Please model this.
Amino acid sequence: MKLSHTLAALVLAASAAAPVFALEFRSVKETGVSLYDAPALNAKKLFVVSRYYPVEVLSTQKEWARVRDASGGIAWIPAAALSVQRMLVVTSASAEVRVAAADSAAVAYRLDKDAVVELIAPAQAGWVKVKHRDGASGFARINTLWGL
Model:
């Protein structure tokens, strides 16, 4: 019995000491950036993305970043093409942006699927403050967006 308690304490201590990895989201700086299947310009081009396209950085290798997009696709992009600006993409059929972080608040504007908005403030209680490229800001439900 004493051995099982010791073993349990060791497992608990090891899990507490395990590193915690934060997600790193970035956006593409320029229009027309290619994503590749390997970290080299002569690798196969998978697709081209537009400015502000949000990605999750999975790892880096020299001047390259291995990234994942909202659909789960994984590719390589030149690290210099990434910005620290945080953009979010609408993954639901549409998203309502409200004037306050409440379902009862008035709708400021609506976004279609695949629309991109800038993250203004960290998510709180299921809401995130966003800004549209035309300057309009408001609060959207986090379950309608990707990139958080």
Observations:
- Residues 2-20 have pLDDT under 50 and may be disordered.
- The longest helix spans residues 2-17.
